[in-house]
Amino acid sequence: VGETVGFKQISHDEVDIGIWYPSSSPVNRDRLGPFDVAYADEGTPLAGYFPVVVMSHGLMGRFRNHHLTAAALVRGGYVVVAPTHAHDQLVFDNEILKAMEHRIHDLDQALSLLFDDPHLGEIVRSSPINGVGYSLGSATMLLAIGGVVDLDRLEAHCQADGDKDVNFCSKVRAPWYVELFGWLMPDDKAPRRFGPSNKALDGTIALIAPMGQAIDFAAIGVNNGKIGIFAFEDDAEVPVAFHAEVLRKHLAPTASTYKEYANTHHYAFIAPFPKWLTDKEDIPVAKDPPGFDRGAFLTQINQDIVTFFTR
Q: Cα dihedral sign for 201, 202, 204, 205?
């Protein structure tokens, strides 16, 4: 759809937001952070009435990490909006699930700025609002469609299987010194369940390398949309057996699609970093096992995501 991928970046109340959209303008931007791109920066929106996809990155990520997926969705006929959840960096790992409200707020703010934009607001549909979430972003999506964080479920899982789900439980479990000296900081009155007061999204949702623990699924709903689960076989951060499979079990079969990618690691969903940067800096999320072609994998999964949304 359209001649080019238009792009606009907005900063508002400490939230950086990227918007990708079909444009009729020529390409005039070749870099987004460290990534090579071909965008019509602030380009004229293509005439039309396009559905919206909002994206939510993983813990400590940035919206630009998923620029390839955003561009693929634009070519499939969507407008994509994505905030950087900057307040992730202000939250201790073990408190991240208790601080999810900042992520829901970011989604709401990104959507409001898109709809209020004098040019882009005229080409987007207000409903349904679709979503793509990566890792912790998948939990963000589940809360945005009615899910609730349940700390009792989380603790039960990490007590029973924390030795097999080590990376996840180490990030959400209180460290040993809090448990040892917990009597100094009584938490008996702290809420054990929490979620947003409104459903920010009501359309089709794609969950990539998803987090499937600690969520109460009872109130989740997508109206006439679908839920897609895209799991990575070699995911050490959120192992399939304890996360993607849990989602597959609890989400209604009629509303969900499940696909698992063989020999794929957790951070494969992030766009490849350029060699000039990885030669200078040690970036753990940029590293792939020998023989893994991240660019080829992203081409495949992005095509699968677009097909999932458009079919």
A: positive
